[in-house]
Structure formats: structure tokens, C-alpha cells
Amino acid sequence: MSLWIQLIACGIAAASFSVLLHQPKSTILVSSLVGILGYTVFLGLRQSTLAYFVASLLIGLICELAARLMKRAATLFVTGAIIPLVPGVGLYRTMLYVVDGEYSNAVQTGAATLLGICGIAMAITISSVVFSAFWHRKNTKRGASC
User: Fold this and answer.
1) Mean pLDDT of 96-104
2) Percentage of the chain surpassing pLDDT 90?
3) 55 HSE (CA, 13 A, CB side)
4) Which of 7, 48, 86, 109 has its CA at a distance of 20 to 30 angstroms from the CA of residue 93?
5) DSSP secondary structure letters along the chain
6) Where are the domains of the chain?
7) Alpha-carbon gap, residue 43 to 11, rounded angstroms
8) How far from chain centre, in Å, is Cα 60?
9) CB count in 10 Å sphere of residue 116
């Protein structure tokens, strides 16, 4: 599939999920653009387990920054932007292999999918913690000097 078609579909998926969750209209475009950027990084790193982590970390950091700048919750941005990275095909193939009795393929695909999911979860957690600590320290120093 063409890269441009994938990126357009990625943006539409992120925007659609944002609309489905009733996000404020001002956050939908940002979520879509961040989702496209994250998916581009994911494709650039050849869709490996590390790619899930790095792309999710980038999404998490940009969403945290956007949340601070737009005075919104970071969850609004992250939920829509992370959707293109969710390894739904891996979950589907794992279940298909189980139903077909191909247990070795099911274990291999399931393990890769779980590693991707863990990479996403760890990256979002790390970005939130790191950004919160940095932002808190920055605001504390500014408040102390006044």
C-alpha cells in the first residue's frame, strides 16, 4: 500500500476515534497530526517492537506538550493519536492461529503483539512521568523566583 494512503488513513482513523470519544473540536486536528507523525516514525523504524516504543514515546511527549499549551488534559490527545499504533492485526492473527490449531504461530504472533502493547504502555507512562516532573520543576523554579 502506498505510504500516502497509509498516512491519510492513519489521520482519518485518529480523527474518527477522537470524534467517537466526543473530544473538543480544537483537539481533533492535533490528535490526527500527532498520530500521523507517530505512525511515520513507526514505519521508519520498520514496525519492530522498538518502533512501538519510540513512536509511542514521541506521541506521548508531543501530546503532553500540546496539553500544556492548549490547557487541556493530555489524555484527550493521546487517545486519538495512539490508535494507529494499536496492533489489532497481531491480535486478530493470534486468534486466527489459535482457531486454526497453529499454536506455534499463535505463540509467536501473540508474543510479538504483547511486546508491542507493552512498549506502547511503557512509552506513554514514561512520557507522562518525565514530562510532569520536568514541567513541575520548571514551574516551581519560576514560582520561587517571583
Assistant:
1) 97
2) 86
3) 30
4) 7
5) --HHHHHHHHHHHHHHHHHHTT--HHHHHHHHHHHHHHHHHHHHTTT-HHHHHHHHHHHHHHHHHHHHHHTS-HHHHHHHHTGGGS-HHHHHHHHHHHHHT-HHHHHHHHHHHHHHHHHHHHHHHHHHHHHHHHHHHHHHHHHHH-
6) 3-145
7) 14
8) 7
9) 24
Structure confidence at residue 146 (pLDDT) = 47
What average pLDDT does range 122-128 have in this prediction?
95
Instruction: Say how far apart CA 17 and CA 13 lie, in whole Å.
Output: 6
Q: pTM of the entire structure?
A: 0.88
For residue 143, pLDDT over 70 is answered with no
Please report, as a single letter, which amino acid is at residue 108.
Q
∠ CA 14-16-19, nearest 5°, is 110
- Orientation angle between helical segments 25-44 and 74-81, nearest 10 degrees: 50
Residues with Cβ within 8 Å of 27's Cβ and at least 6 positions away in sequence, in order, are 18, 66, 70, 72, 76, 77, 80
- Please write the tens of the pLDDT for every residue from 13-31: 999 999 999 999 999 999 9
